[in-house]
């Protein structure tokens, strides 16, 4: 005798008096490890085929018709059922022999669960479904076949007699007289088939092997499934008892099997709750699959910037038209994300609070990207775009108004993602770009690859000089002047303190004593004017000891010569940034009045010609961009006015340099003017460049080819 039979031999329980936790406890006592196997797909196909056809047939009987539905014709393999035939007949017999009342139905249900203890939860329900199909199929098929035979007249007499006899033996001649009961039975069978469908759907979901932490709602379904299986089997037992009533010849009110009171309501509540959880499971799994698909696009190969941005910011229902989410910040017009194809994109990812500095910074970069030179280091400025993705917890009316006001006040010209509430995209942004609610500005290549995790520091320190804003550019800009500071700090150790305190430092020198005196006086005047807001320090090369001047230039010459030796001659293919800056400084040294280096800390911002630098300092009051309102930093304002004076003074003069190293004669050396960048012309042993504004008529006096 089973554990359940011993426990229940003295008392019968009504399941309607038990809550779900009590039923769960009872059902789990009958469950063992899933060691028995059966082809649940095949079993479900065969049983469902019978039941669905039978439902259609009984619907026809109820409606006094004879037309069958043909929507359930499924191909089935019956070999999978043969091994379970004896078990199915035994369970069907148990259900038919169940006494009247929900207590007896509960008792039979628990006995069946005990027999099926070694099967999986879905297999338990499907085996009982197949057992029910044995009886339900006979109930509907035999009377229907008789009706068709009589009306069509196509069946041989012997077959008709057999069918009549089978109907008599099964007690079915009076089935048409019980249409009211058939309606109740059909409704109950349809409902239990919904439960079977939910069980099948649950099985498919857990077969995907997602962990509970990925799909939390799965844990609830794991607690629900034993209860759902119990009520499914209980309903099949109840329906089979109804069939037994139909086949009773002398039926009276006393032997009529009444459905348990409130049974439908209980069943509806359980089914609804399970369906809702399954729907939540599907949504969570769909979200995981969508996330995985998008993540593969971002990290996978053979991609482009548009695909990556779509994966980041555009949800599935917005995929057909990106204009629902991406806008031009200047005019508020919707734009297509395809406009960013083959572009480098600076992604500005932030909240809506405390981002004034970042917006000011990016506005400056946006304007500088439209200025000359149009191409630097092989990168075109017009190929660089800015896309702002504001992220907030909720896009309520207040946040929407704050964004619109910010766009109206700042007049930004770049792209903006509005009302970004795509949860999967937010999760990807936090994972891919390590976004932690603090504004970042990563750089994406036209292939969608992250070229710089965060350009904010690079842009803040170097501005447009950091173009094209790759991670290597920060290292290059930071280290390309190490050689210079090594030599300067040897001459003046105090420079280390000014560098550490991030002072603006003017280092200058020259051959014109008049210019040096005038420039130093103007610089001291400027220092006093802005010393409360802008810390400035100046150092004139050779002020304390004139002997350090030749030593300094000899050291620079030696460094350059050493780089040429180690780099294989200083040719174009091996010229690095430091070498280029050394040459620029040596060219600048030849200015007839003087030379000036402006740095912020150790970051060199400008190499300037003597006269233009003097006028820039002297005319501080004429600068169009004031420092009081903190619109721009000191170095940016200084450089803008410096470039303005250079342009105003007319075409730049040709650059000359005498080189004492024979290897240089063979080298292609770029013009030290950053606005030019052309290769200098070899004239004898002098390098010369006129920035493309004039063509010298002097023929080179060299026999070099």
UniProtKB/TrEMBL annotation:
One of its GO terms (biological process) is phloem development. Transmembrane segments: none annotated. Residues 19-297 form the Sieve element occlusion N-terminal domain. Residues 550-691 form the Sieve element occlusion C-terminal domain. InterPro entries: SEO_C (IPR027944), SEO_N (IPR027942), SEOA (IPR039299). It comes from Arachis duranensis. This is Protein SIEVE ELEMENT OCCLUSION B-like isoform X2. The gene is LOC107482476.
């Amino acid at each position: 005798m089973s554990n359940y039979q011993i426990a229940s031999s003295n008392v019968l329980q009504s399941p309607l008096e038990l809550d779900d936790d009590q039923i769960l406890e009872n059902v789990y006592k009958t469950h063992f490890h899933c060691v028995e196997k059966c082809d649940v797909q095949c079993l479900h196909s065969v049983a469902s085929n019978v039941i669905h056809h039978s439902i259609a047939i009984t619907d026809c009987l109820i409606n006094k018709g004879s037309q069958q539905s043909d929507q359930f014709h499924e191909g089935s393999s019956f070999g999978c059922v043969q091994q379970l035939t004896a078990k199915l007949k035994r369970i069907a017999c148990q259900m038919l022999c169940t006494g009247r009342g929900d207590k007896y139905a509960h008792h039979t249900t628990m006995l069946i669960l005990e027999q099926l203890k070694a099967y999986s939860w879905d297999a338990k329900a499907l085996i009982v479904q197949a057992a029910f199909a044995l009886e339900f199929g006979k109930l509907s098929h035999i009377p229907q076949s008789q009706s068709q035979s009589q009306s069509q007249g196509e069946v041989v007499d012997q077959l008709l007699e057999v069918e009549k006899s089978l109907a008599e033996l099964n007690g079915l001649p009076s089935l048409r007289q019980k249409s009211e009961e058939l309606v109740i039975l059909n409704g109950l069978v349809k409902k239990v088939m919904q439960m079977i469908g939910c069980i099948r759907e649950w099985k498919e979901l857990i077969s995907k092997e997602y962990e509970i932490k990925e799909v939390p709602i799965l844990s609830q379904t794991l607690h629900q499934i034993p209860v759902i299986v119990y009520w499914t089997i209980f309903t099949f037992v109840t329906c089979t008892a109804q069939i037994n009533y139909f086949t009773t010849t002398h039926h009276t009110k006393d032997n009529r099997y009444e459905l348990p009171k409130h049974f439908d309501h209980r069943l509806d509540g359980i089914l609804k709750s399970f369906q809702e959880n399954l729907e939540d499971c599907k949504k969570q799994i769909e979200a995981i699959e969508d996330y995985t698909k998008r993540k593969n696009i971002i990290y996978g190969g053979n991609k482009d910037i548009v695909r990556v941005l779509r994966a980041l910011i555009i949800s599935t229902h917005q995929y057909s038209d990106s204009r629902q989410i991406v806008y031009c910040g200047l005019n508020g017009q919707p734009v297509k994300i395809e406009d960013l194809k083959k572009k480098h994109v600076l992604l500005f990812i932030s909240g809506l609070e405390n981002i004034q500095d970042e917006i000011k910074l990016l506005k400056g970069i946006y304007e500088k990207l439209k200025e000359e030179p149009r191409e630097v280091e092989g990168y075109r400025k017009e190929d660089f775009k800015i896309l702002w993705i504001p992220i907030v917890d909720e896009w309520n009316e207040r946040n929407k108004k704050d964004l619109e006001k910010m766009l109206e006040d700042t007049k930004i010209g770049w792209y903006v993602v509005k009302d970004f509430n795509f949860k999967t995209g937010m999760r990807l942004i936090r994972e891919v770009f390590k976004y932690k609610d603090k504004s970042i500005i990563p750089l994406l290549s036209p292939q969608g690859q992250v070229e710089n995790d965060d350009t904010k520091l690079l842009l803040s320190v170097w501005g447009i000089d950091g173009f094209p804003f790759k991670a290597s550019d920060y290292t290059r800009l930071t280290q390309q002047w190490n050689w210079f500071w090594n030599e300067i700090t040897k001459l003046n150790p105090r420079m280390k303190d000014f560098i550490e305190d991030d002072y603006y430092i003017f280092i200058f020198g020259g051959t014109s004593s008049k210019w040096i005196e005038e420039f130093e006086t103007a610089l001291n005047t400027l220092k006093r004017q802005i010393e409360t807001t802008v810390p400035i320090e100046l150092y004139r090369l050779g002020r304390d000891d004139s002997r350090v001047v030749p030593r300094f230039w000899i050291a620079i010459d030696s460094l350059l010569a050493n780089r040429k030796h180690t780099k294989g001659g200083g040719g174009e293919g091996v010229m690095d940034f430091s070498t280029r800056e050394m040459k620029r400084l040596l060219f600048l040294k030849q200015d007839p009045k003087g030379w000036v280096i402006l740095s912020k800390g150790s970051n060199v911002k400008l190499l300037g010609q003597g006269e233009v630098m003097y006028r820039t300092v002297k005319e501080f009051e004429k600068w169009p961009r004031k420092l009081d309102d903190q619109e721009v930093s000191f170095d940016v304002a200084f450089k803008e006015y410096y470039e303005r004076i250079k342009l105003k003074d007319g075409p730049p003069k040709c650059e000359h340099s005498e080189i004492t190293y024979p290897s240089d004669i063979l080298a292609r050396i770029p013009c030290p003017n950053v606005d030019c960048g052309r290769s200098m012309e070899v004239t004898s042993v002098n390098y010369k460049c006129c920035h493309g504004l004039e063509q010298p008529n002097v023929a080179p006096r060299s026999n070099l080819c």
